[in-house]
Design goal:
single chain, alpha/beta, Rossmann fold, 2 domains, 11 helices
């Protein structure tokens, strides 16, 4: 946007306009007074050179116009914002056991969780985030980072894996996430644990992991995902003809609500049970509202001087006027 540092110079445009009008009037009178009969003036057929005699004065007034604009100091205004953000450090702990392939959430529990987590990452622009995956044992998929593009890319690749140890090792997964956060200097350290089962694997008891979380002041939000009761896990098998077909294995899907509630309550967080995609979305909206980042914005303006552009045009037009005046259009008295 163009702004003007000295706009009061625009008043000189009134004087500039008066000078133009006075020059026109003076020129008209001087032509008439040079002849005794006005009819004689009208009968004169002026040459091209005479018709162009106005050009030097025209270019001088044009040069003066650009001088006045230049004196008004036009500036190109640029607004800049400095955003200072004090974010949280959040470790996402995601269950990838085979039961996460159950399609009671669409398209499956795991894919529903991935989609919501991707939205959550996009909402939390100022936070460092990491991703830890677990089933029978945990492994760090993405360490804490501000590179959310990297995190989103790795999150997209997450799937259940048959070759890793099966089961649901909540205690070990939680302890591993705590270990990643415990020495961090930030005051706001958070774990979000998503699981669809009970702790049935691993060497660390969830209660021991809970004590570690309390010791290091780490909040643990727990999210039970999926409908409770009998569910069908899709299992891909090879039939007698060598073709891969999907069969369904009936299991009793059950979240240990008592344990997850205890972990959340004792770390000053919350427990959620998400049995549908809509509820899961609302869970993460609620967490995002509960855990806010401090963001301050300072706005300042930068100005690029443009007066010299107009000054250059003024010089060009004045040189043209002088060239015409002292060249072919010069008039001798």
């Amino acid at each position: 946007m163009i702004t003007w540092a000295h706009p009061y110079f625009f008043y000189f445009l009134i004087i500039w306009l008066i000078l133009i009008i006075m020059s026109y009037i003076f020129k008209s009178r001087s032509i008439k007074t040079g002849f005794s009969n006005i009819d004689t003036v009208n009968k004169v057929n002026p040459s091209l050179k005479v018709k162009l005699l106005f050009l030097p004065l025209f270019f001088k007034y044009t040069a003066l116009f650009f001088v006045i604009i230049s004196l008004s100091r036009p500036q190109l205004e640029k607004s800049k914002k400095n955003i200072w953000a004090k974010g949280l450090e959040i470790m996402l702990v995601l269950d990838i056991s085979e039961s996460m392939n159950i399609p009671d959430l669409k398209p499956t529990r795991l894919n529903a969780a991935k989609n919501i987590l991707k939205d959550f990452v996009k909402w939390r622009k100022a936070d460092k985030m990491g991703l830890l995956l677990f089933s029978g044992s945990p492994y760090m998929h993405v360490p804490l980072t501000l590179d959310h593009k990297l995190l989103l890319g790795q999150l997209e690749k997450v799937k259940t894996l048959k070759y890793i140890k099966q089961g649901t090792a909540i205690g070990v997964a939680l302890a591993s996430a705590i270990d990643r956060l415990r020495l961090r200097k930030t005051k706001n350290k958070i774990i979000i644990l998503l699981t669809d089962g009970e702790n049935n694997a691993g060497e660390i008891n969830p209660n021991l992991a809970l004590q570690l979380a309390k010791k290091y002041n780490i909040k643990v939000y727990t999210v039970g995902i999926g409908r409770q009761g009998k569910s069908k896990i899709p299992v891909v098998v090879t039939n007698l003809f060598g073709q891969k077909v999907t069969r369904y294995q009936v299991i009793n899907s059950k979240v240990n609500k008592k344990l997850l509630k205890q972990i959340a309550k004792e770390t000053n967080a919350k427990f959620y049970l998400a049995e549908s995609n809509k509820v899961l979305l609302n869970v993460f909206k609620d967490i995002s509202l509960l855990e806010t980042s401090k963001i301050k914005t300072n706005q300042h303006f930068e100005y690029k001087e443009k007066f010299y552009d107009y000054l250059i045009w003024a010089i060009i037009f004045y040189i043209i006027a002088l060239t015409l005046e002292w060249g072919g259009l010069r008039i001798y008295s």
